[in-house]
Amino acid sequence: SHQNYLDQQTLWDNTFRSWVQSCLESAHPCLCLAMYRVEIQTTKDYLTVAEDVVTKRGGTGIQTKKDSTTPSSLTAFLPAAQSFDLVCDLRSRTAGQAFPQLTFSHWQPIQDDTQDP
């Protein structure tokens, strides 16, 4: 009975190991970048400056909204690694008139030319 239990346990271990191995072999692993969604509130005078800062840091999907009655806003996606000192950079280039908010958005696969399509 104890031997039977050990045989079943060994069978289970081997089955599980085989399943995990075939999953790993059939997977298509890739490196991913953590992406932030950046929202910046600023005056319309500094909107292009804020857009320039985000663009130089690799920002994508930039959308701007200008309104004469409310502060202008900019929304974009930015790699988390490029977000360090973003607040200081924006505030120094906009005379303190830019107010960013960053929230995690998604994982972006890194494009690698060495992988098969």
What does the model show?
- With 117 residues, the protein is an alpha+beta fold.
- The chain has three helices and four strands, in the order αβαββαβ.
- Helices cover 37% and strands 31% of the residues.
- The model has no long low-confidence stretch (mean pLDDT 85).
Short description:
The chain is of the alpha+beta class.
* Ends apart, CA distance between termini: 52 Å
Give the helix level as a range of percent. Answer: 25-40%
Structural class from helices and strands? Answer: alpha+beta
Mean pLDDT: 85
**Strand line-up in the sheet with most strands:** 2-3-1-4
Order of helices and strands: HEHEEHE
* Fraction of residues in β-strands: 25-35%
Rg for CA atoms: 24 Å
Count of DSSP-assigned helices: 3
Largest sheet: 4 strands, antiparallel
Q: Unreliable stretches, pLDDT < 50, 5 or more residues?
A: none
Shape: rod-shaped
The number of distinct β-strands equals 4
Query: Looking at the chains present, what oligomeric state does this protein adopt?
Result: single chain
Key features of this structure:
117 residues, alpha+beta, 4 strands, 31% strand
Lay out the secondary structure:
Elements: H1 2-26, E1 32-42, H2 47-56, E2 60-65, E3 72-79, H3 86-93, E4 99-109
Antiparallel strand pairs: 1-3, 1-4, 2-3
Helix pairs in contact: 2-3
